[in-house]
Please model this.
Amino acid sequence: MKASSILERSSTIYSDEYLFWCGNESVTYKKAFHLYEQYKLWIWRGIQSAIQKIEGQHVEIVVTFLSRNTPELLLFILACIDISGSYENGGFHIYTAMLNIRWSATEMAQALKINAEDYINQSGMNNIAQRPGTHHVTLILCEDNFLKVARDTRTLILSDSIQHETTVEVLPTMFQMESRKRTFEVMTRNHTEISSRDQLNREAIILFTSGTTSGPKGVRLSHLSLILQAMAKTSSPCGYNVESRIMGNCVPFFHVGGLSSALAVMAIGGALVFPANNGKESSVGFDPKQLLQSMRQIDGDGCESNEKGIEERKDINTLVVVPAMIHSLWYEYQSLQKQKISYPYVQLLLVGGQNLTIPQLRYSKTMFPRARIVQTYACTEAGSSITFATVHDPDVNTIPRNKITRKGVPNGSFAGMPPVHIQIKIFPMVDGKAIMTNAPHYQVGLIGTRGPHTMNGYWNRGGQECNLQSDTNYKGWLITNDLGYLDEKGGLYFCGRSNDVIRTGGESVFAPEVENTLVQHPQVDKCAAFALEDEKFGESVCAAIVSVAGKIKSSFESMQWRDELRSFCAQKDLAGYKRPRRVFILKDLPQNSSGKVLKNELKIVCEGLKSIPKSRL
Model:
């Protein structure tokens, strides 16, 4: 069984149900499976063309995709996942990989190029010409909007000294395919036969991390990881079901959360809705206006409206977002306030990337009054979500656990409970490394997870791949770079990145603990705590904030806001050394495509702002 088998199974069970809604077009599960089979033939043709002149060498083929979320893209990904693996008779191995459409050509080339230094280290040879007989082939399959950046990437890859063929081809639409059944039958007979269990543990896809610390890394996820993590979303508290309809362009498929949710919807017979384009070129990033216009509304008079004429079966009732998207949706939503528009048909809001701030939670409840709001703690290396937590349920009058008031325990964010197939553990940290013992309840340490959901390892093209299973020190545990603690019920609390600790005056301050306090201020929409050098304290606790509703239009450092926020932190019992000594007011925070704040860039921005007189604090 492979991850792509989800479509085959569902096309039998839900044959005549609709899998895709895209504008005025609809695609049933049966038709989607037929297209998927054709897409496999098309990819095979590209692979055959790329390797037909290569003889006497082992060929490593990477098929990588560069496209916005479309029905075609998802089917192409599944088709490539199905044919990935080793073909011993043909002497080649196929990988499937995804590229971030927001990257530059240089960043894409860095992800795909062969590292000559690593190659030499692996082979033990100093002469590139004497390297082992492996020929590298990369197929960049792109949406036509990304043809230029794909070609630029190809040029940069070909400048490498390692033998490397690179081909760029535009992905066809679902109406441009032709069947080549005979070619497919010939090729599949050459596939290496392996057991079902081994097949599940083989790599299905390479997804790149968002690279907030050490840059993007290729994560090798197995078929089993993709299947289990998708199925976890069909259980409580997410509860995807046959009625689930998810907007397809919220979280891109090159991020694990987007792909995992799409597979979950497919596994349970739901539908993926892609907004109508109306002949106009969509933006590369998230388009809040397009999303809201694609959703069924109720205005202040209780009348239903939908500018697109979307039928009831196509109503969107489930959204997968990161907090930055909620922020963007709210600003677009403001233009509809005169009509008092709301979207009561949305039943579930799954939030990843990081926790919602208090204003963002308020925005969410206003726009989507009938939605359960579920937050997830996840990472690419774990194949998606590690824990889930319901932070709001309109049908349940309970206050979720969101902080611990126990003396001496940092104010961590409640990240929830893990699904049944996932183990989590807190490891004490010494000199930045995990010690293989259990940390007591409420003691902060590195978060670890173990189970079939974790990655097979990192992909290092041209060098030795890093395998999680080969690290005997940690006995199968994936040690994250995140800090947290467990309560007595096994609930996980997130305290931030291990490198997101500010050392001030000999004390350690967890930046998320400061942030969790600051976002409770009624005028703070978004914030980030970070360190800047300080002559007296070594590092000073600094905060950058974005005001509610964007009332402050320019960027500057403010003593008035510093005094206001320090007073507010005192009211919230945040220790004096943890309160910000410098406060910067920004129009927005620098973020990556996952909505995570890029603190290195933030430091550069704030260091360049006009200084205020030195504080005596």
